[in-house]
Amino acid sequence: MRIIGGRFSGQRFTPPAKKWPTRPTTDISKEGLYNILANKIDFSEIAFLDLFGGTGNHCYECISRGCTDATYVDKFGGCVTFVHKMREKLDIGEELTIHKMNVFSYIKKCERDFDYIFAGPPYPLKNIPEIPDLILDGGLLRPEGLLVLEHNPTVSLSDHPALVDQRNYGQTIFSFFAPI
User: Fold this and answer.
1) CB count in 10 Å sphere of residue 88
2) 137 phi and psi, to 5 degrees?
3) What is the model's pTM?
4) Helix (H/G/I), strand (E/B), else coil: 104
5) The domain containing residue 39 runs over which residues?
6) Contact 97, 64 (CB under 8 A)
7) For the chain, percent helix, then strand, then coil, each to nearest 5?
8) 45: exposed, middle or buried (Cβ count in 10 Å: 0-12, 13-18, 19+)
9) Which stretches of the chain drop beneath a pLDDT of 50?
10) Residues 6 or more apart from 103 whose CB is under 8 A from it?
11) How far is CA 13 from the centre of its chain?
């Protein structure tokens, strides 16, 4: 895995493979996503939330591009430990806040809002279609904000009223949502 753009561009990182509970966004699909986002977001001006953060891949990408307010949420101890180590390695302690907790609990308890939210839940998660409403109804996304939900073709979100775009990269689909 690598960071695609910004000050850490080309930096590679390898999470531990033993019992690793994630499915990281591939470099190809991530590059496509960030090419789109580069035209929509000024990373130096945003507050970013990474739900189901896994390796921290999206946090590193946003911070590399200038974000100074990134929040990571994942419940798996191994993932959180890895992100703590990467935060030290990249020297991004000021920019990255890490929460080890269930994403749905975080959404319910969160008392702040964000400009850009990325959610990359495990594909087998049954309640993926509920995530946009939980975030939008919960007030986590600012009025001009953007939510990107990564999922596979078995999940259909094309009828959601807040859906503004979808991009397909093989078995990876990025659905873009904005507050209505």
Assistant:
1) 10
2) -70, -25
3) 0.96
4) helix
5) 27-177
6) no
7) 30, 25, 45
8) exposed
9) none
10) 51, 52, 73, 74, 75, 119, 121
11) 17
Q: Can you read off the two tokens belonging to residue 73?
A: 């949420």
Domain count, the chain: 1
**Position 176, amino acid:** F
Q: What CATH number is associated with residue 158?
A: 3.40.50.150
Distance in angstroms (rounded) separating the CA atoms of residues 66 and 71: 14
Beta sheet of 96-100, edge-to-edge order: 96-100, 69-74, 47-51, 114-119, 141-151, 172-177, 163-169
Which amino acid is it at 15? P
87 three-class SS: helix
Residue 56: which of 28, 31, 22 has the closest Cα?
22
Q: Is residue 132 part of a domain?
A: yes
DSSP class of residue 5? S
Q: How many Å apart are CA 56 and CA 11, to the nearest integer? A: 13
